[in-house]
Design brief:
Layout: H1 2-29, H2 32-58, H3 73-102, H4 110-139, H5 144-150, H6 154-182, H7 187-216, H8 222-233, E1 238-250, E2 253-262, H9 268-285
Antiparallel strand pairs: 1-2
C-alpha cells in the first residue's frame, strides 16, 4: 500500500503542474484541444486525491458493523474515479470538441501549445515511470497483462491507465493542433478533442470493469484455492475437504473459508489442532 501511495503522489504533483500550465496556455491561444487536455489533467488530479482518500479509509480497523474491516472502500472510490474519468474527462472533452467542430475558430500562437504539450509529456512520462516501476515490483516475474488482470490493488493500475491515457491524449492534442494549422482547418482541433474524450471513455470502461469485479466480491485464483485444499488435506485425520470459498476484502487481504470433514473417531482436540496448523500453514505460504 505504501508503494501505491508513492505512485499516486507522483501523479498528483505532475497533474497539478500540468493542469495549471494547460489552462493558462489554452486561455492565451484559444486552443480547443489544449482546453480538453487541461480538463483532463484537472480530472486526473481530483481522481488521485480520491484514491488517497480511499486508501486512508480502507486502512481503518474493523468495527462491530464492519467486522472484516474497511478494505473494500478502496474499491468503491476506485469505481467513483472511473466514473469521473468517463463523465468529466471523457464527456466534457468530447462535448468541447463537438462545440469546436460546430463553431470552429483557429487558435493563436501554436508554438506555446507545442511547448506545453512537450513539458506535459515529460511530467506525465515521469509519473508513468513511477507507477510502472511500482507495478513491476509488485508483479515480479508475472507477465504484464495477467498481472494487471489479477492485481487486487486498484490504485496502481488506475494511475498507470490514467498516465497512459494522458500520454495518448497529448499525442492526439499535438496532432490536432498541427493538422489544424497545416491544413488551415481549425475544426480538426475539435476532432482531436473528441478523440481524447473517446480515449478517456475507453480507459474508464476498463477501470469500471476491474473495480466492479473487486467490489462485487472477487475470489482468489483457482490455483491458489487448489493449493490451499492440498495443505488442508495433508493434515492428519482429515477425511474430506470441501470447496474453498474466498473473497478479497482489501488489496492484501482475503477471506477464505474451507469445509473440512474429519474421520469419525477423531478426538475434538486433535481436530482443533489440525485446524490451527492448517490455518498457520496457509498464512505462512500466502501472507
Amino acid at each position: 500500500m505504501a508503494d501505491s501511495r508513492i505512485a499516486v503522489y507522483g501523479a498528483i504533483v505532475a497533474n497539478v503542474a500540468i493542469a495549471v500550465t494547460k489552462f493558462a496556455v489554452a486561455g492565451v491561444t484559444g486552443s480547443s484541444a489544449m482546453l480538453s487536455e487541461a480538463i483532463h489533467s484537472t480530472v486526473d488530479t481530483s481522481n488521485e486525491l480520491l484514491l488517497l482518500w480511499g486508501m486512508a479509509r480502507s486502512r481503518r480497523p474493523p468495527t462491530a458493523q464492519h467486522p472484516f474491516g474497511h478494505g473494500k472502500e478502496l474499491y468503491f472510490w476506485s469505481l467513483i474515479v472511473a466514473v469521473l474519468i468517463f463523465g468529466l474527462g471523457g464527456g466534457v472533452s468530447f462535448y468541447e470538441g463537438v462545440l469546436h467542430v460546430i463553431d470552429p475558430h483557429a487558435s493563436t500562437e501554436p508554438f506555446w501549445n507545442y511547448v506545453v504539450l512537450g513539458v506535459a509529456a515529460l511530467f506525465e512520462g515521469a509519473s508513468f515511470a513511477i507507477g510502472w516501476r511500482q507495478f513491476a515490483r509488485e508483479r515480479g516475474d508475472t507477465p504484464f497483462w495477467p498481472a494487471l488482470r489479477t492485481s487486487k490493488d486498484p490504485t496502481t493500475f488506475t494511475v498507470i491507465a490514467e498516465d497512459a491515457a494522458a500520454l495518448g491524449g497529448l499525442a492526439l492534442a499535438a496532432a490536432g493542433v498541427y493538422a489544424s494549422h497545416a491544413l488551415d482547418m481549425p475544426e480538426l482541433e475539435g476532432v482531436a478533442s473528441m478523440l481524447i474524450g473517446a480515449l478517456l471513455a475507453f480507459v474508464a470502461v476498463l477501470l469500471v470493469r476491474e473495480s466492479r469485479g473487486l467490489l462485487v466480491g472477487e475470489g482468489i485464483k483457482p490455483e491458489t484455492a487448489a493449493a490451499i485444499r492440498d495443505l488442508v488435506a495433508a493434515e492428519p485425520h482429515v477425511h474430506e475437504v470441501g470447496p474453498v470459498l474466498s473473497m478479497y476484502i482489501g488489496p492484501d487481504e482475503a477471506l477464505v473459508a474451507v469445509e473440512v470433514r474429519f474421520d469419525p473417531d477423531t478426538p475434538t482436540s486433535d481436530a482443533a489442532e489440525a485446524v490451527r496448523r492448517a490455518r498457520d500453514r496457509i498464512r505462512e505460504r500466502y501472507p
